[in-house]
Amino acid sequence: MKQRFFTLLSIALLLLGWQGIAWHVERPELVPDIPRLFASMLHILSTGEFYRAIGATCLRALWGLLLSFCAATAAAWLMARSTTVAALLRPWLAGMRSVPVISFILLALIFLHPEGIPLLIAFLTMFPILAENLRQAFCHLRPEYAAMSRLFHLSPYNRWSQVIYPQIRPYLFSGLATAMGFGWRAIIMGEVLAQCSTGIGGAMKRAQTFIDIPQLLAWTGMAILLGWLSDRLIRRAATWYPKVSYTLYNIYTLYNIGGTAESPSPAPLRLLDAGYRFGARNISFALQPGGTYALVAPSGYGKTTCLRLIDGSYRPTTGRIENRPARIAATFQEPELLPHLSALRNVALPLSSFLPEDAALRTARQYLEMMEIDSQAEQLPASLSYGQQQRVALARALAYPAPLLLMDEPFRGLDAALRLRIIRRIKSLQQQRGQTILFATHQAEEIEGMQAEVIRLDA
């Protein structure tokens, strides 16, 4: 409210200043007073030319933005994926940002039809801004989120709307706001110099030709208003988050709290001299169905790498992995909760492919209750402590129907009594499901509580 007051006050002071200049100059044909300016605006609004001009300029802006966005998305993705492509395109983008817009317009006037010049100028102005912003967005995508969405088999829509879009959103809308700010000015400048038959710039040029200052200023005011409206529209769009898409049918039956939709494979999962990257130690062991195993090794000996080889995040550079199940549930080194979703919806998200929304949320709440975190179900991850986030991540992994559960130091941040209670519940759940569990740990009491067979990587 306070900011709006000062905005209105600033506009009022500007109008009063203009009115004072008009009174002082006493040349209404050159410096019209405020009533005459508003009269000119009302006259413009009553003519068909106004709507044709606004429509033509907005259409050029939209087409310019659409073409720029599509080309910038492709270029940014290639630049983020390849340093060679980035090295090739970066000088072009820097050149496009550095060359004055008027230079583009003057060159275009030589080679192009005037009506097409504003669209070209819009593209050349907006493309480098969007490309650079989107390149930064793609470079900052978290691989851990990508691994989580792949492992939990999120649908393509949910992967885009809940994992990718929230990460690129700040860069995207910052680029759109900047690009449209420059784009409006470039388009109207192009229309003025190209003397387009339609458009705000063309109307401004005709008003200048006939020295119709009130109309020129009125059209200028319309251009400013359009720029302001587009900025507000982009800001409003930036607050929108797409909803999670849930299946309409109960594809798998998740009975009680611990139901699993896939029986454990009768064949043991085997790592046969599996290694990742040159010089890494090769790993060989077998996981029997329904067994509990603890990976034990000093920090840096490859416990996390081993888990990521099993879940498919890494491909072994040597050896092979046999009998990997189709679905694997996991917790990661960090909780990896999506920051825009509540604790409840973080747990429900992997269930979106199997259950309708009501059933998924009901199941998610049951697992949060099991982890003694249900009282914070509606809170965002940022408001939770590390231990609370870890319990939400555990609830998410336990809720997901899979015959194999991988956990990377899952009980960090939990006090001894809570850790013991959660371990007992996980063991009880495993007995109901017959699920295979492999977890990395440094703690002997966790191994004892989980009744786990030890697999030593440093042996």
Describe the structure.
The protein is α/β, with parallel strands linked by helices. The protein folds into two domains: about 45-240, MetI-like fold; about 270-455, Rossmann fold. The protein has 16 helices and eight strands. The protein has a five-stranded parallel sheet, with helices on both faces. A three-stranded antiparallel sheet has the order 2-1-4, covered by helices on one side. Helix 5 crosses helix 6. The longest helix is centred in the middle third of the chain and has 39 residues, at about 155-195. It is elongated and about 95 Å long. The model is unreliable at about 255-265 (pLDDT under 50).
Which SSEs are present, and which pair or pack?
Layout: H1 2-25, H2 34-45, H3 48-81, H4 83-98, H5 101-111, H6 117-139, H7 143-151, H8 156-194, H9 200-209, H10 213-238, E1 269-275, E2 283-287, E3 292-296, H11 303-311, E4 318-322, E5 328-330, H12 343-348, H13 357-370, H14 386-399, E6 404-408, H15 416-433, E7 436-440, H16 444-450, E8 453-456
Parallel strand pairs: 3-7, 3-8, 5-6, 6-7
Antiparallel strand pairs: 1-2, 1-4
Content-based structural category:
alpha/beta
Q: What does the main sheet amount to?
A: 5 strands, parallel
Read across the widest sheet, the strand sequence of neighbours is: 5-6-7-3-8
- Give the total of beta strands: 8
The percentage of residues in β strands lies in 5-15%
What is the CATH domain class of the largest domain? Answer: Mainly Alpha
Q: Summarize model confidence as the mean pLDDT.
A: 85
- In CATH terms, the superfamily of the largest domain is MetI-like
Distance, first to last CA: 67 Å
What fraction, in percent, of the residue positions are helical? Answer: 55-70%
What is the molecular shape?
Answer: elongated
Please give the domain count. Answer: 2
Instruction: Report the total helices.
Output: 16
* CA radius of gyration: 31 Å
